[in-house]
Each structure stands twice: as C-alpha cells, then as structure tokens.
Amino acid sequence: MGRVLSGIYVGLFLGFIDTRENLNAVTQRQYSRDGIRYLDDDFNRSGLKYWERGVVDRYYTNLGSVIVSSSGGGREVLALALRGLCVSAFECEEKFVRFSRALLAKARVQANVVVAAAEEVPSLGLHDGIIVGWGSYMHIPGAQARIAFLRRLRAQVVNGGPILVSCELRKPEGRRSRVIATIANGIRRLRGSQSRLEVGDDLQGYYKHVFTEEELRRELSEAGFRLEWCSEKNYGHAVGFAV
C-alpha cells in the first residue's frame, strides 16, 4: 500500500512537470546537489563495480577503444584507461568533467573527456565498444529520445561492438508504475498538455524510467543493437551488440 501511495504523490507531481526541459532540469539539480561522490577521489579511484567488471572482462578485454557516456567524475574512464583501452567520454556537468580531467592527470592516464549537453552525443570518431554511464540511460525522458540517443552512439561504434546499459528494472505487472502514469496523464489532459507519461516513468529526486526487459530489447533494437542478455542482479544491466 505504501508504494501505491507514494506512486499517487509522484503521479500528481509529474502531472505538472510535463516538458522535457523541466524533467532534465529536475535531474540536473538533483545531481548538482547530491552528486558529491562524483567529486570524490576515493569513489572515482574505486574501479569498476562487480557487475561492470564481469561485463568488461567478458566483452571488452580485446577491444582497442570505448566510448563512455555520462562519465561523471571519471570512475569508469579511469578504470578502463588503466586496462589499456583508449577511452573517449562525455558528461553534461562541467564540474564533473573538470574533476575527471584532473583525476586522470594525477594518475598520469590519457583519455578524451568532453562536455556535452544532456541527451547529446558529441562526434568522437569510430570506436570498438560503448558503455552508457552507470544508471544514466534511465534519466532520458521518453522512449523516442532514448532511441535517438542510442542511434547517435550507434553511428560511432563498429559493427559487432558491445554496448553496456545499466538501469533499474521492473516487472510488467507492477502497480506503482501504472498508478503514476494514470494520475499524471489525467492531470496533463485536464491541463491541455499534449505530452504523455510512459508506464515506468518515476521520480526519486531525479526523473527516471524504470524498464522491463522487453522495453530495453525494443529500444536497443530500434537503435541498431541486438540485446544479448539482461540481468537484475546487483544493479540492473543489459549487454547488446551493434548490428
């Protein structure tokens, strides 16, 4: 019952935040306030998470180069560069980019880290693989915008190149997600808004979309990737390949 009640509250809130710009602004404000760990040396030197390490060991060991999106303070970038990969990365928060560049310089490691606006993918050249930064994919509002983001990444990876996407996962029958969408969309219709919330959209300080495996499969497919497998262990993540 508690989850349903919290879903009602979130649905009311999201009924009035009905533009992409506002949803992105909510997310960026949250990370600006609470993203202190992305400016912490120990966190960014901590290396890959257990589940990330398993994926990289299996699919990225023999690659020469990789793109990291939403790279934060440089944790993944540093860990991958120390493995000998040529890393190109981008991040929308300028202070995180400045920190990650300093982190890499102190470690005497080379990597290309640039600033890019939210949802944008800069031209980085052709790479062997992609890692979508930890949990960042779920902060892009709307399936079509997420697919467009993946397509821009697909244009910069070789055929057969792996992609790692991490996000929260849900069961298709979850009540909370449907409660949020029903309430938010009802309010938006009353307000004359043309935008519609998707089942799975949520708010937890920042905007996020919580995925079913089928949603991930469909979005990856439409962007030019084949889903290899999806896991809920440790932190939800999926691996696919460029086709």
Number of strands: 9
Order of helices and strands: HHHHEHEHEEHEHEEHEE
Strand order of the largest sheet: 3-2-1-4-5-9-8
In total, the number of domains comes to: 1
Mean pLDDT: 94
Q: Alpha-carbon distance between the termini?
A: 44 Å
Low-confidence stretches: none
Helix residue percentage: 40-55%
| CATH fold category name | Rossmann fold
- Shape field: globular
**Overall SS class:** alpha/beta
Question: Count of helical segments?
Answer: 9
Judging by the overall fold, what is the CATH architecture?
A: 3-Layer(aba) Sandwich
**CATH H-level superfamily:** Vaccinia Virus protein VP39
CATH C-level name: Alpha Beta
Compute the CA-based radius of gyration: 18 Å
What can be said about the biggest beta sheet? Answer: 7 strands, mixed
Strand content: 15-25%
Could you explain the architecture of this structure?
The protein has 243 residues and is α/β, with parallel strands linked by helices. It has a single domain, classed as Rossmann fold (3-Layer(aba) Sandwich), CATH 3.40.50. Helices cover 43% and strands 19% of the residues. The chain has 9 helices and 9 strands. The protein has helices at 2-16, 20-34, 41-44, 50-59, 75-82, 94-106, 143-154, 175-190, 213-223, and strands spanning 65-69, 86-91, 112-115, 129-132, 162-166, 201-204, 206-209, 225-231, 237-242. The strands form 2 sheets. A 7-stranded mixed beta sheet has the order 3-2-1-4-5-9-8, sandwiched between helices. A two-stranded antiparallel sheet has the order 6-7. A hairpin with a 1-residue loop joins β6 and β7 (206-209). The radius of gyration is 18 Å and the shape is globular. The mean pLDDT is 94.
